[in-house]
Amino acid sequence: MKRTTALPIALLAVAISFGASACGNDGPESTSESTAPGSTEPTATTEPTATTESPESTEGPATSGPGTTETMGNPTEESAGDVLVGLTEDDATTAAEGHGWAFRVARRDGEDLPLTMDFRPDRVNVEVTDGEVTAVVSIG
């Protein structure tokens, strides 16, 4: 009797073992080889490496004053408000893109708009009243 129950359990263990080994590790330290479609030659996969800009970089808006930021990075409600509030929607879109931010209208003329729930630290959600940005609702 034990033989009949042991066989299905052993088969299940083997199936789980093969399934787990097929998953692999897709992390950044992974250096697997694969074959290109229609080819028998293996092609090495390389992971993208992060590059950093030096602090002395002069690309993008790097001056201080109204409508600009000191560094290109994720906005805060305060920094986005300083840049965007008071601009027309079109001008605010252009200004946000110039700072490397995504721009989204979350409330128009007092009505909340449907939004996705994904979080993006570079996205500014604003309120627009009569075509003008009146407030930064949130970041993300």
What level of helicity do the residues show? 25-40%
Our count of helices gives 3
Distance between the termini: 61 Å
- Estimated share of beta-strand residues: 15-25%
Describe the global form.
elongated
Average pLDDT, to the nearest integer? 73
Order of helix and strand elements from N to C terminus: HEEHHEEEE
Description:
The protein is α+β, with helices and mostly antiparallel strands and 140 residues long. It has a domain of 52 residues. Helices cover 29% and strands 21% of the residues. The protein has a four-stranded mixed β-sheet with strand order 4-3-5-6. The protein has a two-stranded antiparallel sheet with strand order 1-2. It is elongated.
Key attributes of the depicted protein:
3 helices, two-stranded antiparallel sheet, 4-stranded mixed sheet, single chain, 6 strands
How do the helices and strands line up, and which of them pair or pack?
Blueprint: H1 2-23, E1 33-35, E2 42-44, H2 77-84, H3 89-98, E3 102-108, E4 111-112, E5 123-129, E6 132-139
Parallel strand pairs: 3-5
Antiparallel strand pairs: 1-2, 3-4, 5-6
